[in-house]
UniProtKB/TrEMBL annotation:
Gene3D superfamilies: STAS domain. Residues 270-339 form the MlaB-like STAS domain. This is STAS domain-containing protein. Coiled coil: none annotated. It comes from Candidatus Dactylopiibacterium carminicum.
Length: 349
């Protein structure tokens, strides 16, 4: 946790401007959630007319175009790069496209939650609050959740409250699905499952369902003999343009090879099988090397889970090297604080 907190805002490179940091973080989060069109729009706008100090943004843009398979755009921007930096542009390497999406520039960046929501997701939600505060709006998709425990319910309701206090505009997709997961724990007259009640109330508040909120508030008061927080007027709506509805592909976990533990393709969701495989590999090595050269995309939630895994390994005195991630993945790793618990070795550009 301490390392993650210390990592906040530390995407720093030589001569990097503060506005570049915001662009890097925004583009990395958009790409992590398959909003490729929006990520490209952010980077294109940032490099347009920028000076030599913007080279990291250019590296991200070129790697994004490689991953999405847009050679025409890659070639057209290569000309501008060569003129600006007076050196040869990067070479197109025929990267296999990851699942690509596109989104209008005005759509809020999306965070997709999947699997079982528990208290172990705290680091991801702290980053969600930080990024929401920076960008001012978020979309949270709950439609792929399979379960919510009491710690996860508390964490989610606390996060929504923090975002509301920070005046962050939040749109929740899949709220009805999440409410159905919680409803069996809401038993009127039985004062148990308080975190689930508060989580359900927080979601109803966030999606603007005042009638159901008031009904549930009455039931809460009857059950716990106290009144919950009152209904608050709804904030301005967030664009629900959903360009990230295509599920990220769950890749098979490759067997460790001579170069180390291989992460490749698209790693989405918490993917416990990936973490179990990494844990098994790490149990046999003091120096852990992760080959990320073929990792096309690392989803937001997966990055948080990876941080937790690597932080645990660091606490055991083990050192981790992540080799050659593309620039979009590397930027997300820094946003999530992974560079505080592992060394990230950039690929040659």
């Amino acid at each position: 946790m301490g390392a993650l907190a210390a990592a906040a805002g530390k995407i720093l490179v030589a001569e990097e401007l503060a506005e570049d940091v915001a662009v890097i973080e925004e583009a990395a989060v958009l790409f992590a959630n398959a909003n490729d069109g929006a990520a490209q729009a952010v980077l294109d706008e940032a490099v347009e007319g920028a000076g030599r100090g913007s080279e990291q943004l250019w590296r991200m843009l070129f790697d994004l175009l490689r991953v999405t398979g847009d050679k025409a755009a890659f070639d057209s921007r290569s000309v501008r790069y060569a003129q600006l930096f007076e050196k040869s542009p990067p070479v197109w390497d025929q990267a296999e496209p990851a699942q690509a999406g596109s989104a209008p520039r005005e759509a809020a960046p999306a965070v997709n939650l999947s699997g079982n929501l528990s208290g172990n997701a705290r680091s991801q939600f702290e980053q969600l609050v930080r990024i929401g505060a920076k960008l001012g709006k978020l979309r949270v998709d709950l439609s792929r959740l399979r379960g919510i425990d009491d710690a996860g319910a508390s964490l989610f309701s606390e996060t929504l409250q923090s975002l509301r206090q920070g005046k962050v505009k939040v749109a929740i997709l899949g709220a009805e699905h999440a409410l159905r997961l919680i409803e069996p724990m809401l038993k009127v007259g039985e004062p148990e499952g308080r975190p689930f009640w508060l989580c359900a109330l927080a979601m109803l508040q966030q999606i603007g369902d005042e009638a159901r909120f008031e009904d549930m508030a009455v039931n809460f008061a009857v059950t716990f003999e106290e009144s919950p927080s009152s209904w608050e007027p709804q904030q301005d709506a967030v664009s629900l343009t959903d360009s990230s509805s295509l599920p990220l592909r769950h890749e098979d976990v490759p067997a460790p090879v001579r170069k180390g533990f291989v992460m490749e393709g698209v790693v989405g969701g918490a993917q416990p099988e990936v973490l179990r495989a990494l844990s098994a590999y790490a149990s046999e090595h003091q120096q852990i090397e992760i080959d990320a050269s073929q990792l096309k995309r690392l989803e937001f939630v997966s990055a948080g889970a990876l941080f937790n895994q690597l932080a645990q390994l660091q606490s055991q005195g083990k050192q981790t090297m992540i080799r050659a991630p593309n620039e979009m993945v590397a930027a997300l790793m820094r946003v999530m604080g992974i560079d505080q618990v592992a060394r990230i070795e950039a690929r040659k550009f």
